[in-house]
Amino acid sequence: MTEKSIKKVLQRHRLSGNCHMITFQLEFQILEIQNKKSLSSVITDLNIIMEPTEYSELSEFVSRAEERRDLFMFFRSLRFFVEWCEYRKRTFKHFKEKYPEAVHLAEGAASSCMGVRSASQPGFEVVIVWRIQIDDEGKVLPKLDLLTQVPQRVLELDKNRVIETAPLGFRNLLGVLGIEATLESLIKLLCTEEHARSRH
């Protein structure tokens, strides 16, 4: 399309690919505008089709990338998201293999939750929920939370509110020790009796 010394070209593209375990297809249009002095191009339409995955965090991110028509953000964030998913999977698998009696993964190795049962207190369990979030700018961040499952009688005996403040203490520990060392400390704390027996 040409109007007075300005040339406009609309290109349609389709691209299929995968990033580790996530398969996607992109359909997008690029409008190139050329005048005597410059050439500029802009994405005018972007449609992202993802194969169904267990990662619910991705759907909101994909909608945002389509809305902004930002291919660079899509590729960059998807790569970091997948790397964090792989790291979470390896970390949970490591602790499951190291502490098979105490650690359980309800959804298998790709789980976003890891349960840890106390060796000395039946019914006492903590659940680490590890989400991977993508913010508005496409920055990928891990978000770990601690949930406690404790018998009512234990809660009644907890006069210092240790169980109630455990999630905040867990977040503080993450900031100091990092993810792996914090998880290791927590598991060892809950498995002290079992750990002591295995050393004798």
Concise synopsis of the structure shown:
This protein has 200 residues and is of the alpha+beta class. Helices cover 41% and strands 34% of the residues.
Task: Count all strands and give the number.
Answer: 8
The major beta sheet can be summarized as:
4 strands, antiparallel
Distance between the termini: 83 Å
Strands of the widest sheet, in order across it, are 1-2-3-4
Stretches where pLDDT is under 50 for at least 5 consecutive residues are 194-200
Specify the helix fraction band: 40-55%
InterPro entries: CENP-P
Organism: Equus przewalskii
Pfam families: CENP-P (PF13096)
Protein name: Centromere protein P isoform X3
Describe the protein.
This is Centromere protein P isoform X3. This protein has 200 residues and is an alpha+beta fold. 41% of the residues lie in helices and 34% in strands. The protein has 6 helices and 8 strands. The chain has helices at 57-68, 71-98, 152-157, 162-177, 179-190, 192-199, and strands at 2-3, 6-19, 22-34, 39-50, 103-104, 113-117, 125-134, 140-149. The strands form 2 sheets. A 4-stranded antiparallel beta sheet has the order 1-2-3-4. Strands 5-6-7-8 form a 4-stranded antiparallel beta sheet. Strand 6 (113-117) and strand 7 form a beta hairpin. Helix 1 runs antiparallel to helix 2 (71-98) and helix 4 runs antiparallel to helix 5 (179-190). The longest helix is centred in the middle third of the chain and has 28 residues, at 71-98. The model is unreliable at 194-200 (pLDDT under 50).
